[in-house]
Prior knowledge:
The chain has helices at 9-16, 22-44, 52-61, 77-90, 147-164, 168-196, 215-218, 237-245; strands at 49-50, 72-76, 95-98, 111-115, 118-121, 135-142, 200-203, 213-214, 222-226, 229-233, 264-267. The chain has 282 residues and is an alpha+beta fold. It has a single domain (9-142, 205-277), classed as Beta Polymerase, domain 2, CATH 3.30.460. The strands form 3 sheets. Strands 1, 2, 3, 4, 6, 7 and 8 form a 7-stranded mixed β-sheet that branches. The chain has a two-stranded antiparallel ribbon with strand order 5-11. The longest helix is centred in the middle third of the chain and has 29 residues, at 168-196.
Amino acid sequence: MHDNLTFNQDELRARFNPEGSPIRKQQMVMLGMLKELDRICRKHEIPYFLYWGTLLGAIRHDGFIPWDDDLDVGVMRQDYLRLMKVLPEELPDHIVLQTNDTDKNYFYFFAKLRDKNSFLDEGAYDRVFKERGIFIDIFPMDSILPSTQRWRLQSQAYNWFRKGNGNESSMKKIRALTWFNRHVSFPVLRVFSKIACCKKITFDYGIPFHQVLQRDDIFPLSTHVFEGMETFIPGNSHKVLQSLYGDFMQLPPDLDNVYHHVEKLEFFTNNFHNENDDRAAH
């Protein structure tokens, strides 16, 4: 642990994610998926790194932020494409890959690993997805044109979804737009990116996040312990986290409002006590 922290890790765990609590069970399911991802990436020599709040948790808490209920991983696009090919062959039966190819209504431009023994309702776009178990996000990263140009092309999909409340008419338009961006507009933009010789790294086309990183701050990768396992992190993680969160070693000022919004969470197996006792909303 870190000697210079101004808070008590054990007290945070007792308050937000004690053993047996729904969020801790969810975190352990995500950790299991991360272990499988790590195993597959090491086997095929595919570099990945923890990102966003998962990276923050690794550095500040040596694991999950106690109240965090997601897990984010970054992979450079060329490696991401390789990863998408090997995952379906390597994943255990209780984990499924979710992409545009595996779920016709999944219009995100990043992948998810989904646990098949649980159900998670975020009360948002996910209600039209085929797979809705606990997940971890895998974000493709690339050197591409400014984010304001690339995001507008896919943002209309979210507008159509909200306007049509996810009905089949809106989903038909969303699927068409997603196909066009994936196979036409985004490949064209990648050509311009190569011509422009963009050297800064950000999220790939179609992803609604725009954090810009320097390649030298990511590579070469380093390692750090996350919930007892050795994982990969950006080489200059402190600089990355400072750009994301500022004084990242300090806790949020209002700890009463730090939860993500999850409408419903269920576990379908006996891995976590009795099924009827495992249903929770938080």
